[in-house]
Specification:
The complex is a heterotrimer of chains A (about 110), B (about 280) and C (about 290). Chain B is about 35% helix and about 30% strand. Chain B has 10 helices and 11 strands. Chain C folds into 2 domains: about 230 residues, Rossmann fold; about 55 residues, Alpha-Beta Plaits (2-Layer Sandwich). With about 290 residues, chain C is α/β, with parallel strands linked by helices. In chain C, about 35% of the residues lie in helices and about 25% in strands. Classes of the chains: A alpha/beta (about 110), B alpha/beta (about 280), C alpha/beta (about 290). At the B-C interface, α3, α6 and α8 of B face α4, α7 and α9 of C.
């Protein structure tokens, strides 16, 4: 499974960024290789409109199975994410990446639309 | 002549003034009232007319032609609004973000993005005695008001050029949508309240209208609350005070039920009359 | 640190007054962000004593360099916004009409067109007269609010709140249903909807709640001018119950609202004995939920 987190920093101790479109980092954990990689998304702060769709486009290109985030994507971004076989979990804002991953493993996260 | 009713922010009595002014004027002559507050058109709460027709309004957005596309990704890189996204071997169009600039369609090397019509909103045309009322409503979920406002004004030019007196209820604020709505007016009535908030927002609206070089005047709503800074401002700036609407709890009550003020409050008729006379004198 | 956003579908519901009252209540515990950038009003009550101001850039617009322009007119022919016209044989961009699509920039054969980012306003980090920090912004005439600006104001405010070890970030949210209001809501822990007991107030409340629901943020509602129309007030309450929105408070029609604004005061400063209990009760209810 490939799992994506919206994150405010890099590494397991970073906090989940509750924002979807304007998340600072996108972290990708590959359960098979046990690798946690990160993509710097801070340039999205320069986007006036359509931040959600642009971040969704990036996530699409990563081909993940699961997305863990905070508030959940807005309407435009959701329209894109719905085009991929992606399971979305929300309300993880404030947790560390590690905590969010544990919560996901123990089925303690909320499913988004 | 065309009068636009506008304000620096919402909730200052813009719709109340537009509707009452239109119905009052319609007692003596044919009047067209256009509700161009397309995101929140509330005029129909106050106008009880008979529906004559509904017209769908369209604009053009690109459609992805999969068979022609070479997946070069230029459209996605070029779109200034992030309205085109390359998702693997698919190009996704986000009509919501598209500004219909046609750049992607005309610059696509494979001609894989022909423009097609997409619904933008709906115009409802009602009659109520001498009053022709057109409500322009943006489709749910759409965010861009300006293209619909432009189309609505074209519709009015085509359908109602014979009506000599036209009133526009414009969207609140001083952004693009408000500019589109007041642009074609001969006269603008700005409505505000005599509070520091009201004055602050009025100031922004005045600066905006001045940029467009359209003559304008001010109606002060809820006259009697707050202080007289707004009147000092009008005097200093040489702006005409068209009328004042007194602050009465009763007005708020009539409004909350969707009632008409000029029928219930005689002084209000006098105020409307003053606004009309002044606006018509401008020509 | 918890982030609370106050929004209202319709203008004139008393949202800014309520924001200022909550800011007063939590003056030692909160940082305030005014994201209602189209009508930024909180500074008129919270009177900044000192501020640090920064320019804000957003969006692009085309400009044509006269020396390089060959007057071929291609730019004007492709512009869908009629923003380019010839004056004495030279092509000019009308900045008010340009929507920044960059089509002209991409096709200009002589490279005479550039698309600089626009300075659209300023944002300020201010010390309010109540002591709490206020982050607010101001747009140039004709400039459009954007998700980018709201997001900037919020991230500066968020950073400030953390640095000051505050419990709350109180956000006066943007109007509408577009990008700015999405940016206002993004990252929030709690939403307070302010409406009034009128037909238009109710219909706008429903619209804006549809949007909030998307973000799974718990919400509470304040019905202002609740006694103006008891029938609609009841309908609003039924709706709140159905939608699981906490009915936070019903505020009667009061001349204290405009009076306080006129004096540059918060509601509490205008009439302590009436308003403090009302807002303290709200504050406690909000704390309980969070």
């Amino acid at each position: 499974m490939k799992i994506i987190f919206t994150s405010s920093g890099e590494g397991w101790d970073a906090k989940i960024d509750p924002r979807f479109g304007r998340t600072d980092y996108i972290l990708l954990y590959n359960e098979e290789t046990e690798e946690l990689s990160s993509i710097d998304n801070r340039e999205i702060q320069d986007v006036a409109h359509g931040a959600g769709p642009k971040t969704a486009e990036k996530i699409f290109s990563l081909g993940a199975d699961v997305l863990i985030t905070g508030n959940g994507p807005g309407g435009n971004a959701a329209a894109i994410l719905n085009k991929m076989p992606l399971k979305i979990y929300i309300k993880a804002g404030g947790m560390t990446i590690h905590e969010a991953y544990e919560a996901y493993k123990n089925n303690k996260l909320y499913e988004g639309e | 002549m065309r009068i636009a009713i506008a304000s620096g922010k919402g909730g200052t009595g813009k719709t109340t003034l537009a509707v009452n002014l239109a119905l009052f004027a319609a007692e003596t002559e044919p009047v067209l009232l256009m509700d161009l507050d397309v995101e929140e058109p509330n005029g129909s709460i106050f106008v009880e007319g008979v529906l004559q027709s509904e017209t769908a309004v369209y604009r053009e957005v690109p459609r992805w032609d999969q068979s022609a596309c070479t997946l070069c990704g230029k459209c996605s890189a070029w779109c200034a609004y992030n309205a085109l996204l390359k998702l693997g071997d698919t190009i996704l169009v986000m009509p919501n973000l598209c500004h219909s600039c046609h750049a992607c369609s005309e610059l696509c090397p494979a001609e894989a993005l022909p423009m097609k019509q997409e619904s933008l909103g709906k115009l409802s045309y009602l009659e109520c005695g001498n009053l022709r009322f057109v409500e322009s409503k943006l489709d749910i979920g759409l965010e861009q008001a300006s293209p619909l406002i432009a189309e609505s004004l074209k519709y009015a030019d085509k359908m109602f050029s014979d009506i000599g007196f036209q009133i526009i209820d414009s969207p609140p604020g001083t952004a693009c949508a408000m500019l589109s709505a007041v642009k074609t007016a001969d006269f603008v009535v700005l409505i505000s309240e005599p509070t520091p908030f009201g004055l602050h927002d009025l100031n922004l609206a005045v600066e905006t209208i001045r940029q467009l070089s359209i003559p304008f005047g001010v109606v002060v709503n809820r006259d009697g609350i707050g202080n007289d800074d707004i009147y000092k401002y009008l005097e200093q700036e040489g702006i005409v005070l068209l009328a004042g609407i007194p602050n009465q709890r009763r007005i708020a009550e009539i409004y909350s039920q969707g009632g008409l003020l000029y029928k219930a409050i005689p002084e209000f008729r006098t105020s409307l009359d003053k606004v009309l006379r002044y606006a018509k004198g401008i020509r | 640190m918890k982030e609370i956003v106050i929004i209202s579908g319709k203008g004139g519901t008393g949202k800014s007054s309520i924001c200022c009252a909550l800011a007063h209540l939590w003056k030692d515990r909160a940082v305030i962000a005014d994201c209602d950038v189209d009508a930024a009003d909180m500074h008129l009550i919270l009177h900044p004593q000192s501020s640090e101001s920064k320019d804000f850039f957003s969006g692009i617009k085309a400009t044509i360099e006269a020396e390089t322009c060959s007057s071929c007119g291609l730019c004007a022919s492709v512009c869908r916004f009629d923003a380019i016209s010839a004056q004495k044989g030279k092509y000019l961009v009308n900045q008010l009409d340009c929507e920044g699509c960059a089509y002209c920039y991409r096709i200009c054969p002589t490279g005479a067109i550039s698309i600089p980012e626009q300075k659209v306003g300023q944002y300020h980090i201010s010390q309010s007269r109540l002591g709490c920090t206020l982050i607010h912004a101001q747009l140039n005439i004709g400039a459009e609010n954007s998700g980018k600006l709201v997001s900037k104001v919020k991230s500066v405010a968020r950073h400030q709140a953390k640095q000051e070890h505050k419990d709350f970030l109180l956000v006066d949210g943007s109007p509408g249903i577009g990008c700015p209001v999405i940016a206002s809501l993004s990252g929030a822990h709690f939403v307070i909807l302010v409406t009034e007991a009128s037909k238009s107030g109710f219909s706008d409340l429903k619209r804006v709640w549809e949007l909030v629901k998307r973000f799974n943020i718990p919400g509470a509602c304040i019905v202002n001018k609740a006694d103006i129309n008891p029938v609609i007030c009841r309908e609003i309450n039924e709706y709140l119950l159905k939608e699981k929105i906490l009915a936070l408070s019903e505020i009667p029609y009061s001349e204290d609202f405009p009076a306080a604004i006129s004096m540059g005061r918060t509601l509490m400063e205008q009439n302590e004995s009436t308003w403090r209990p009302i807002f303290e009760k709200m504050g406690n209810a909000i704390k309980e939920i969070m």
